[in-house]
Amino acid sequence: MHRAVHHPAPPLLIEARDLRRRFGETVALAACSLAIRPGEIHALVGENGSGKSTLIKILNGIVAAESGTLALDGAPARLTSPRAAQRAGIATVFQETLVLDEMSVRDNMILGLDGLVRRRAAPAREAAMVRAALAALGLDVLDIERPVGTLSLARRQLVGIARALLRPWRLLILDESTSALDIADRDRLFAALRRFRADGRSILFVSHRMDEIETLADQATVLRAGSSVASLPAGAFSTDILLELMSSREEAGAAEGHAPPRPRRSRGRKLLSLCGFALSAGKPQFDFDLHAGEIVGVAGLEGHGQVAFLECIAGLRPAPAGAVAVEQAPIRSHRDALRRGVTFLPRDRKTEGIFAPLSVTDNVTVSCLPRLARWGALAPSWLTTAALAMCERARVRMTGAHLPIAALSGGNQQKALLARLLATRPRVLVLNDPMRGVDLGAKRDLYDVLAGLAAEGIGILLLSTELVELCVLCDRVMVFHDHALAATLDRTELAERSLIAAMFGQPGPGVAAA
Amino acid sequence: MHLLRRVAGHGMPFALAVALFFVINLVIPGYANLNSLLSLLLLASLLGLAAIGQTLTILIGGFDMSIPAVIGLANVLTALLYGAGVPIWTAAVVIFAIAAVIGFLNGFAARYLRLNPLVVTLAMGSIVLGAIWAGTHGEVAGSVPNWLVQTVSVIGRTGPIPLPGVVVLWIVVIAGVLLLERRSVLGRWIFAAGANPRAAELAGVPMLGVWITVYVLSAVLAALTGILLAGFSGAADPSVGAPYLVTTVAAVVVGGTPLTGGRGGYGRTVAGCFVVTELSTLLVGLGLDQAGQQMCLGFLIVALVAIYGREAPLSLRL
Fold it and tell me: Which pTM was predicted?
């Protein structure tokens, strides 16, 4: 598809073909191609996990591709380290690059340009360089001796971009570097980007704002499930077309094949209710009820507030506005939540979930020990019996409950953690991406288990980054955008296309009125 | 099979303890007699009681460096109070209550205020020792009941049992601690808290309660050791606990409980207590003084931590 659009004239600045990269069992990039011409603003679009960040890491020399070819200026090239990428003229601005809050703008920007001992430039020249880079983005007035920590998020983003401009570069990669900018700042940045383009330099930018892509990009490449599915020139793409390309219809069919279709049922009684809730003061407030037997999905692009939403419900962070309650009893702390039967499955199994050296039995029973004990004492057989019963409910496959949980596969560890939640006899499960990094067989088991639990009358809040999963499992899905509830899609509206539209802040069916 | 593996896990330090006994016998001819064995048991018991707190605090991911100071405090208070005519049991209750307050403050500061447990307990130890010196000016006159002396004497007996009281007490306490570790809610929480504090918090383990309880236990058992030591020396000395800073940590490390928490247990420390006590005896036999012994134990800790620290635990290699 790329072929059709090039002209013979200047060689491509970068041409990547059929890049492939796996991490463990997950395929991050399957067959990804990208062609960037000199003097071009190129947009890279795709939903969470479509492979954007892996592609950017390959272009930065942080990650190596397993197969595929990469050419710079028409000649084969290998970017084996971040330094090699720098030498090739590739500058990247990641989402958060200014790391040292206490240091000045100037020091943050110079960081890494100096040698360990020797300064490359005299202080006066250094300051001039920093000012020039900032001026290019319209930040002439910024005091470069100010500590970075005192700047607004938008200013920090701009300083981060200016920092990348200090080195000689030909390709500037902006990884969601415009998310915090207001209109005026953004327009100044865009003007600067257009000037760079006029100099014959190129920009690759990742953005979740469709309007930005439409106004700025000369070319847009769409990634879906690790593969580039299209690369279209300005004029050939529109927001609608891009959203369509991002949704993966084939995959939906594949997932439906192994997840049981859930029968529609009438709602049970109300378990959990949110009243006048908002993720931060000033964002539109909303009400929400979770009913018995319901699976409600939670979706959003990375960092749009959906995780914070789960954490508020689990009592792990205070609700910035409004109240969370279980049958009129408010949840103000994690302890409250546990007492009311609201249990939380954290996202990171290793650091927040398992006790690696302890046995499966200990791992499963840790949350329900007082209930199993008599006068604080426990017989090993009580623990084993309880653990085995819960493991069976969660379909943990193992050779023995006395083995350390670290001996189980990732999928079975995840099921064991679900067993731990079940052992507390919960009324509400709050699950933060439980199927993440889990093999297919275990996924299928988990789908069954969750559907079964809902049928028993447990209310489930399920955050997932796999949209297919949400479409198949959920009765309705709450979509977050920009730290606010953007839409609630019910079963009749649930489709990957509509989810993606809502995640990208596009109006569609079922969008809640603010 | 399961039991076998568990015994094999404890086997190494116990084998080391037995081997060392024969080594001492070579270095000190005529060592192998009933009296030596009783004195070994006696010294190991005192160390063993003091090392319970060190083991439990290390299991939850902390340290208790205030153990020597609490031992010294209990030691001095025992002699002072009993010498002033206070009944010994009343004195003990007062001492345990003070120790409990010290333990509470340690646990509270380390967990609730998130201060580094090593620093907190070192500082607490310094405060307590300072207070003793300020209160007594280093001169303590007092006395201890005769039966307390008998309890920690090699020739002491416990009713029909031909062992000094402190040894019998230790055996009972070992059983108690092992039951606590394996068959109580608190025990399971202790291991969870040490294995992954974040996960334990999310799983609803009352972390603050666990930390405070463990530190209170540690301080109270250190106080018990201090009271018994008053009988051992017959006189009070604020610095009587000083050697226990290194020896309690050494006993835990030699036993094979990693300093990272969540693994190991008191069963291993019991073996470690024998090894450390024997080692001290050996070093004395070789003509080293207190200072030389301390140095050797210090080297031993570094060497063992280096060895254990490098080897990935079985559970993570699977």
Answer: 0.79
